[in-house]
């Protein structure tokens, strides 16, 4: 299922978001599959949990059903409408498709890229070209310093491991859009807010709005031809 999280629901943490979906599925009476054990839970899995406060335009979750829900809710469109009616304002499922259960784990882990958009308000002396120069300097440094998870200290993140692309477009005077694509997975990721904080240190006066999560995507494997060119 592809869903968006906007408005007041963007402040939901991961567990609160999970509970919101669990309640909505229960209200709909859909034939959910449950985990085993003393405290069975609906089998719901998110591809990549979103940060609190971030608007999300296209997140993805996988849901296991005990039987085909199309048999009991007037088809896909019928139960999607019922589900959206049960979700809080700001949460909306835009689309759903079937995935055979034996393929669901591979499909879940196939996603590894997240795309973000950040609107920046620039002082008069800072334009898109200045932001591009700061981005080039950032990429040349090869690392970004971010706060550590502990109360004190900092840690460095290698950009080539997580940063796929970052570009800037001037949308109007003193306003620019920064598009960011990062890689996520078992080795972690890099937050767009940390990237923008680094650019802000390089460009005093640059003010970035909260990032907006636009999409998740699979990373296409390199073609045999491209691999051959790299090795030659």
What does this 3D model show about the protein?
With about 230 residues, this protein is α+β, with helices and mostly antiparallel strands. The protein is about 30% helix and about 30% strand. The chain has helices at about 15-30, 75-85, 100-110, 130-140, 160, 190-200, 225-230, and strands at about 1-5, 45, 55-65, 90-95, 110-120, 145, 155-160, 165-170, 175-185, 205-210, 210-220. The radius of gyration is 21 Å and the shape is elongated. The chain starts with a strand and ends with a helix.
Short description:
32% of the residues lie in helices and 30% in strands.
User: What is the name of the CATH architecture of the largest domain?
Assistant: 2-Layer Sandwich
Work out the helicity level: 25-40%
Oligomer: single chain
Major sheet description: 9 strands, mixed
CATH C-level class of the largest domain: Alpha Beta
Tell me, rounded to a whole number, the average pLDDT.
87
Structural class: alpha+beta
Low-confidence stretches: 222-232
* Count of DSSP-assigned helices: 7
Q: Tell me how many strands there are.
A: 11
Q: What portion of residues belong to β-strands? A: 25-35%
- What is the 3D form? elongated
Amino- and carboxy-terminal Cα gap: 42 Å
H and E string: EHEEHEHEHEEHEEHEEH
Which radius of gyration do the C-alpha atoms yield? 21 Å
Instruction: Assign the CATH topology of the largest domain.
Output: Alpha-Beta Plaits
Number of domains: 2
């Amino acid at each position: 299922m592809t869903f968006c999280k906007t408005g007041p629901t963007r402040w939901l943490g991961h567990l609160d978001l999970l509970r919101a979906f669990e309640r909505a599925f229960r209200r709909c009476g859909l034939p959910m599959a449950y985990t085993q054990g003393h405290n069975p839970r609906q089998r719901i899995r998110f591809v990549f949990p979103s940060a609190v406060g971030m608007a999300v335009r296209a997140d993805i979750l996988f849901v296991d059903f005990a039987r085909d829900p199309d048999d009991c809710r007037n088809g896909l469109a019928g139960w999607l409408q019922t589900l959206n009616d049960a979700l809080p304002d700001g949460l909306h499922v835009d689309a759903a498709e079937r995935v055979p259960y034996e393929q669901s784990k591979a499909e879940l882990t196939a996603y590894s890229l997240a795309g973000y958009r950040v609107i920046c308000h620039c002082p008069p002396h800072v334009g898109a070209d200045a932001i591009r120069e700061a981005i080039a300097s950032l990429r040349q440094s090869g690392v970004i310093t971010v706060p550590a998870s502990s109360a004190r200290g900092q840690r460095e993140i290698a950009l080539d491991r997580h940063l796929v692309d970052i570009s800037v477009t001037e949308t109007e005077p003193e306003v620019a859009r920064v598009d960011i694509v990062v890689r996520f997975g078992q080795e972690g990721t890099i937050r767009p807010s940390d990237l923008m904080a680094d650019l802000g240190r390089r460009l005093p006066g640059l003010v970035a709005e909260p990032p907006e999560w636009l999409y998740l995507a699979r990373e296409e494997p390199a073609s045999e031809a491209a691999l051959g060119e790299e090795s030659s």
